[in-house]
Design a protein that fits this description.
Structural class: mainly alpha
Helix content: 55-70%
Strand content: under 5%
Number of helices: 28
Radius of gyration: 33 Å
Oligomer: single chain
Number of strands: 3
Largest sheet: 3 strands, antiparallel
Length: 499
């Protein structure tokens, strides 16, 4: 009995190993193989004509304006692309039943090389697309090895499926408009699927890929700034995971760099989330949130809304941040928002004048802060707050001791003082007490022509008789023009850098 049992065991193990071997050697059904790569499809998609391909093979065909001739003589139509989830599930089940590792997506550049080989090299070549029987009946073990070699394995480069769109061949532009539109729609859909995944790793990969793509590709910023994608990003901005929040806000900064995207982003409802991040988000997220608000504030249609939504208090608070980037972007955001009168009134009520004058006196970010004060000095409320806060004495002392880090900063100081000169008798009294006339005479004798003109204008206001004390609107407008020139010198009108 013992030997019988032993023989039975040996026979059983032999039978099982043979079964496994046979299963591994069983060729996959032809419908599981991509007609272009000849490999098991990891990400099958159905095109308009009903044919199924690996996704990156479709991309390569569209990019190279190539339509292969199928075995039945038909041509595929790539105008729309839909994920074939049913076939994907079937392929995965087949791999599991045959003890084979699931296939991995073919790399875009490998797919492009395969398509290049199928493109006729001469006019006499027949545009036929014939794969040998051997190619279509490779063993499962060979297919597994091939798909593994074609994939990108490092985790931080795992987003190759999405990143394939970052560089396109020059002949991409020759594709039909419907195919280009379909490809753009496909790219958007891929990002949305990843960003709405239940897996944090998938979401992170999608955000990193989107951030890299929109960092340098201006055309992709416009294409991808859609309500659906913005909604997906919006849900991740308030994430408790630092990587998701940081990359979500950084990607949004990149999208906001295009002028036509700024109003779209505001209308998506993202601004309140950016404000919350600026108030208490992760440190790197706060950097990007300040940059996003600055970028969005460049559009005149957004200025009032951003102020109404509550961005001014956290931006003022951010002027004291330890991060230099947050301080500078917040200051520039405040400057552009202050160009709207409703925001000027809000800033004055929030005590911005005292904060800004304190920064000027300490020599902290003097150029950008003076730019904001110049803007506030153009309004009646702003002038009153600045006169109350000791701005005249502060500016005169700076001019007297030449405490400036650049010519542009000195110019801003004079522009702000010029704005205050429309404050009437009150300004005259404060200026006289501070010794402004003597200081301005020195400026007239030593400055360049532009500086001299501003100094003379302020001196004229100081020496004007009381009966002539009326607001000269023409000169006030000139002072605002001076402010615009100063802004250009300081680089205050440029957009935030991509992240």
């Amino acid at each position: 009995m013992g030997s019988g049992k032993q023989r039975w065991k040996i026979s059983f193990h032999k039978s099982r190993s043979t079964l496994l071997f046979l299963k591994k050697q069983s060729p996959p059904p032809k419908e599981f193989l991509c007609p272009i790569s000849g490999s098991l499809m990891a990400d099958p998609v159905v095109v308009s004509s009903g044919h199924t391909f690996e996704r990156n093979c479709v991309r390569a065909c569209v990019s190279l304006s190539f339509k292969p001739t199928m075995f039945d003589g038909s041509k595929p139509d790539f105008s729309t692309v839909i994920p074939n989830l049913a076939l994907k599930s079937t392929i995965l089940n087949w791999c599991r039943d045959h003890f084979i590792d699931p296939p991995k997506p073919i790399d875009y550049y490998i797919a492009e090389e395969l398509v290049h080989k199928l493109i006729p090299t001469s006019k006499n070549s027949i545009n036929k697309f014939q794969l040998s029987t051997d190619e279509l009946t490779r063993t499962a073990s060979q297919l597994s090895i091939t798909s593994s070699e074609e994939s990108v394995t490092p985790r931080n480069v795992h987003t190759s499926t999405v990143l394939a769109i970052t560089t396109r061949p020059s002949c991409y532009s020759s594709s039909s408009s419907s195919e280009v539109e379909a490809l753009n729609s496909l790219e958007e859909e891929e990002f949305i699927i990843k960003l709405k995944s239940s897996q944090v790793l998938e979401q992170e990969e999608g955000l990193i890929s989107l951030r890299k793509l929109t960092r340098t590709k201006e055309e992709m910023r416009v294409i991808l700034c859609t309500p659906r994608l913005l909604s997906a990003i919006k849900s991740l901005i308030s994430s408790r995971y630092s990587s998701l929040q940081v990359n979500a806000v950084a990607a949004l900064v990149n999208l906001s760099l295009e002028k036509q995207n700024k109003v779209k982003i505001l209308r998506s409802g993202i601004v309140p989330l950016l404000i919350e991040v600026l108030r208490g988000g992760f440190p790197e997220s706060q950097d990007h949130a300040a940059g996003a608000l600055f970028s969005l504030a460049l559009d005149d249609h957004n200025k009032t809304a951003i102020g109404v939504l509550g961005a001014l208090p956290p931006l003022l608070q951010s002027l004291r941040s330890e991060s230099e980037r947050i301080r500078h972007d917040s200051a520039l955001a405040l400057y552009h928002l202050s160009l709207v009168q409703s925001n000027q009134v809000k800033m004055i009520k929030l005590g911005s004048v005292q904060i800004l004058l304190g920064m000027v006196k300490s020599g902290h970010m003097m150029g950008r802060v003076l730019l904001i004060l110049c803007s506030l000095a153009t309004s009646v409320e702003g002038r009153a707050a600045m006169l109350d806060g000791g701005a005249v004495e502060c500016f005169v002392n700076m001019l007297c001791h030449d405490e400036f880090d650049s010519v542009a900063t000195r110019d801003s100081c004079l522009a702000a003082l010029n704005g205050l000169s429309y404050g009437g008798l009150r300004f005259k009294g404060l200026a006289k007490e501070a010794g402004a006339e003597e200081t301005l005479e020195k400026v007239v004798n030593t400055g360049n022509e532009h500086i001299k003109q501003k100094a003379r204008r302020i001196l004229e206001a100081l020496r004007r008789k009381e009966e002539e004390e009326e607001i000269d609107w023409e000169k006030l407008l000139e002072s605002e023009d001076d402010l615009s020139r100063t802004r250009c010198l300081l680089g205050g009108g440029g957009a935030s850098n991509s992240c």
